[in-house]
Amino acid sequence: MTIAIIVVVCIVLLALGFLVPRLSRHPQKGVDSALGAGQRTGGKAPGFLGRLLSKQFGTSRKATNKSASLGRKGRSKIGG
């Protein structure tokens, strides 16, 4: 379920980055801060579980940022 949500968020950020590059930064920052809070909270769990939870949120954060960045980069390549 969580993977599906992250995939949908990535697709939405990619589309926003391509269609409205300037306006895509605010949603990207919102998603980034939410996942960052989850990453910090997950990292407080003890031992292996803390590393696992922190890594999952970190990987999701990286994917969403990369998706938004690719949308803006694609828009700039077509001359928009």
How would you describe this protein?
This protein is an all-alpha fold and 80 residues long. The protein has one domain. It is 85% helix and 0% strand. The protein has three helices and no strands. Helix 2 packs antiparallel against helix 3.
Q: Mind sketching the topology for me?
A:
Layout lengths: L1 H18 L5 H19 L3 H31 L3
Q: What is the H-and-E element order? A: HHH
The tally of domains stands at 1
Low-confidence spans: pLDDT under 50, at least 5 residues? none
Global Rg: 14 Å
Shape: elongated
Strand composition percent: under 5%
Structural class: mainly alpha
Q: What separation lies between the terminal Cα atoms?
A: 35 Å
Q: Major beta sheet, specifics?
A: none
Q: Tell me the number of helical segments per DSSP (H or I, 4 or more residues long).
A: 3
Summarize the structure.
The chain has 80 residues and is mainly α. The protein is built from 3 helices and no strands.
Q: What are the main properties of this structure?
A:
3 helices, elongated, 80 residues
